[in-house]
Write a structure and sequence with these properties.
six-stranded parallel beta sheet, 8 helices, alpha/beta
């Protein structure tokens, strides 16, 4: 922390901060206002027991020093970090950015920040999340065995964990089978549509191409015996399954907030993914 100059406070004359530049702390506010740190904390939290004169002195010091409370420190004192995690098996997929924006829309208004982690970035993701004291996590990827954590965990896939969000894949599989018959699955990594692989027939002539599983050149139109799953904007085929990652992110964030409530029951949120055809 760099400090320059001196602080002067004279009753009735205001505060002289000429030549001063530094990152203010609560201790600095207390010293300038002539009170202790506990009084500053109570004023900032709106404690009605503090006299108006003392509160005004503290607020004048806060404004003069441009003080901003340390959210991490104040959160930890309350047993919360204000941080939630998004764990991704495929952090380079085209839909990650819009999905993050959707999560931020539902979580940011509640004062939550988002930490993004790739499944292969650390030896143990659960241990990493615990060390960072996150308030909850969304897991977008495969789970190997049970994951034991002390915070709410929302998983992608309706058959995983007590709190989950996922597509009604049984309906999607039925609509694809009805439209084209047996299909083989073509994917480039994990995606929200990866569970379709379990219903695929490797010998089928029709291919379900999972464009949400990896990068794909934009602006192309594919025809023939191909069904496109989760194509990025600008990519269409004769048959395709649209994917709205921003809406999915919003649903994930809202589900995590609900799961964070102490009395929350297990939540399974079903989203519709429907087959569409080029006219």
């Amino acid at each position: 922390m760099w400090r320059y100059g001196f602080l002067k406070y004279n009753p009735g004359e205001g505060i002289d901060l000429r030549g001063v530049f530094f990152l203010a702390t609560m201790k600095d506010v207390a010293a300038l206002a002539g009170v202790d740190k506990g009084t500053v904390s109570r004023v900032l939290n709106g404690d009605p027991r503090i006299s108006a004169a003392t509160a005004e002195r503290v607020w004048e010091a806060v404004r003069a020093l441009n003080y901003r409370p340390d959210k991490v420190a104040s959160g930890l004192s309350r047993g919360t970090s204000g941080l939630v995690a998004l764990v991704l098996a495929n952090a380079s997929a085209w839909w990650v950015g819009p999905l993050l924006e959707g999560m931020a829309r539902s979580l940011g208004l509640k004062g939550r920040g988002i930490l993004v982690l790739g499944q292969g970035w650390f030896r143990s993701i659960p241990e990493e999340l615990a060390s960072r004291r996150v308030d909850g996590a969304v897991w977008m990827g495969p789970l190997e065995g049970e994951v034991e954590v002390s915070f709410p965990l929302v998983c992608w896939g309706l058959d995983v964990g007590p709190h989950s969000v996922g597509f009604s894949l049984d309906r999607l599989q039925g609509s694809i089978l009805e439209a084209v018959g047996p299909f083989r699955y073509v994917g480039y990594g994990w995606s929200p549509f990866s569970q379709l692989e379990g219903a695929a027939d490797p010998s089928a002539s029709v291919a379900v191409v999972d464009l949400a599983s990896g990068p794909f050149p934009p602006g192309q139109v594919l025809g023939g015996d191909v069904v496109l799953c989760g194509p990025p904007p600008g990519v269409r085929g004769r048959l395709w399954v649209p994917f709205s990652p921003m809406e999915v992110g919003t649903a994930l964030g809202r589900t995590l907030l609900l799961a964070s409530r102490a009395s929350a029951r297990p939540l399974r949120v079903r989203l519709e993914a429907r087959l569409e055809a080029q006219g």
